[in-house]
């Protein structure tokens, strides 16, 4: 291990570290020799990381981020702090708006070297979506309390175990025809490993990256219809996709129990791509990976005959 590695034997607290993105950030930090504290409402979701850590390298803290004492305890002794918490349910204003400010203030009071806050592309104080308003509030509170914090705004994050590509993969494998919400909306899907690497690179160099906002978008812009078509092709299936009018999509998203919430629909409709007003992967020295690099492999589980079925499904088009 290089002597210049800033994470070696340093304690890093990762709020939301037991979640989807957190799992990848945690693995990267463990590989770099950091001591890691996973702070989460349900830390047991991160127990799968234990075999990757050396003795004493990994610890778990059950944390309520809306409780200041709980947050302070999770930060205690840490040299670095990362906030990955994001939700589409519950009190989003408190969880993604107010709580990050508390984290940032306590991190500053405890002398933390660097703070990285993961937000999302498209935060807006005037947005109709509570999610976007909460993200905007969170960014403001973090910057106010910890001026040298780095804010990362990724587009929709994909990975082998995500809830985005896999949701569509499951539906496409099960239904002969599918509705497509906002079929022309463009997304700049970003690979989860690339986001994790961006977290590490900004965290390790606050002198260079602190106080900045980075927009993280993948190397291509795809419409919702194109994404569905690519998933179907990777499964070797022919499917009929029906473009839904906005009014019908909005009504559907308002029904409890549907796959897409109203906030998610409001955010999806205008698309989700980098504005170009902020630095991104290029300025971090990262070349983002496209969805096509992984899709065929990941869709094997959804083919009619699994790994034996691509040629069959290409000919039979189940």
Total number of β-strand segments?
13
Into which percentage range does the β-strand content fall?
15-25%
- Indicate the radius of gyration in whole angstroms: 20 Å
Helix content class: 25-40%
Distance between the termini: 51 Å
Low-confidence stretches: 312-318
Structural class: alpha/beta
Going across the biggest sheet, name each strand in turn: 3-2-1-4-5-6-11
Number of helices: 13
Q: What letter string, H or E per element, gives the SSE order?
A: EHEEHEHEHEEHEEEHHEEHEHHHHH
Mean of the pLDDT scores? 91
Q: Biggest β-sheet: count, sense, barrel?
A: 7 strands, parallel
General shape = globular
Structure description:
The chain has 318 residues and is α/β, with parallel strands linked by helices. It has 13 helices and 13 strands. It has helices at residues 20-31, 68-75, 92-109, 130-145, 165-174, 192-204, 206-209, 224-235, 246-253, 262-268, 281-284, 295-298, 310-316; strands spanning 11-15, 35-40, 58-62, 80-83, 114-118, 150-154, 157-158, 177-180, 186-187, 190-191, 213-216, 222-223, 240-243. The chain has a 7-stranded parallel sheet with strand order 3-2-1-4-5-6-11, sandwiched between helices. Strands 7-10 form a two-stranded parallel sheet. Strands 8-13 form a two-stranded parallel ribbon. α2 (68-75) packs across α3, α3 runs parallel beside α4 and α9 (246-253) runs antiparallel to α10. The longest helix has 18 residues, at 92-109. Residues 312-318 have low confidence and may be disordered.
């Amino acid at each position: 291990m290089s002597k210049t590695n800033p994470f070696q034997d340093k304690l890093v607290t990762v709020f939301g570290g037991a979640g989807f993105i957190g799992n990848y950030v945690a693995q990267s930090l463990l590989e770099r020799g950091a001591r890691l504290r996973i702070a989460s409402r349900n830390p047991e979701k991160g127990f799968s990381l234990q075999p990757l850590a050396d003795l004493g390298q990994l610890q778990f803290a059950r944390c309520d981020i809306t409780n200041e004492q709980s947050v302070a305890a999770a930060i205690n002794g840490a040299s670095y702090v990362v906030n990955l918490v994001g939700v589409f349910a519950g009190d989003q204003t408190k969880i993604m708006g107010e709580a990050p400010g508390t984290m940032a203030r306590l991190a500053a009071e405890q002398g933390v070297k660097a703070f990285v806050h993961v937000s999302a592309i498209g935060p807006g104080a005037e947005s109709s979506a509570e999610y976007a308003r909460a993200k905007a509030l969170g960014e403001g509170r973090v910057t106010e309390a910890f001026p040298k914090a780095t804010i990362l705004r990724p587009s929709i994050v994909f990975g082998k175990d995500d809830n985005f590509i896999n949701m569509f993969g499951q539906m496409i494998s099960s239904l002969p025809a599918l509705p497509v919400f906002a079929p022309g909306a463009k997304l700049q899907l970003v690979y989860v490993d690339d986001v994790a690497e961006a977290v590490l690179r900004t965290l390790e160099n606050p002198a260079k990256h602190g106080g900045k906002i980075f927009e993280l978008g993948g190397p291509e812009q795809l419409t919702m219809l194109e994404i569905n078509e690519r998933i179907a092709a990777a499964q070797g299936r022919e499917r009929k996709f029906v473009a839904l009018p906005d009014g019908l999509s909005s009504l559907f998203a308002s029904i409890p129990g549907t796959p897409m919430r109203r906030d998610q629909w409001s955010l999806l409709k205008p698309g989700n791509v980098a504005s170009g007003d902020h630095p991104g992967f290029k300025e971090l020295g990262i070349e983002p990976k496209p969805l096509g690099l992984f899709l065929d492999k990941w869709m094997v589980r959804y083919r009619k005959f699994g790994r034996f079925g691509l040629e069959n499904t290409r000919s039979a088009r189940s």
